[in-house]
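Sanity check

After download, print the first record. It should look like this:
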Amino acid sequence: KGFSIKSCLVGVSLNQSSHVTVSGNNITGTWGFTDFLSPQLPAGIFLWESSNNIITGNCLENNTFGLCLREHSEHNIIVGNTISGNTNEGVLLTSSSHNTFYHNNFVYSLNNQVFFLSLDNLYNKWNSTTEGNYWSDYNGIDSNSDGVGDTPYIINADNVDYYPLMHSYLMKNRISVINVTTSRTVTAMGVPLLIYVDVENTG
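Expected structure tokens:
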């Protein structure tokens, strides 16, 4: 959580991992030879046979691949990430289904925003119940100005964002109060009292 990673083969790699949260990282400039038969590709975040993880609040910019989900990486939640300016694909999926993507910003990748390397990616979900993702190449309209496009963003026949966002999504920080103290324990009317509140940014 919270790392800045640049100029390497892979920013974060999960191999046969589950119940991991990858959050708040800035990953840029991953590069290397692209061999689709290799178990490792140059990517900001790479998952191999990894399921039930959460990928959230990461900025994956100017990598070869932004995010790769390979070999039955399933039931992962990808939310609130910015995936932009990648020199190959924004998201690459191979034999990986039943992942959920929403509130992500997909901003211009050289080849495709999303690419399926295999033909068995039966279904991935690309929106919550009310909002999907921001796609820089979406050309729909928003006739009622609710911030959601009137027409779906179609990736392929089995993968559709039904609620594409008209503007990039800004991840909201969650703040928790962890301690409250006062300058005095006894006070009276007209006597100043200072209240100190310690808060923590939890994501």
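If your output differs, re-run the checksum step. Summary of this record's structure: DSSP finds no helices and 19 strands in the chain.
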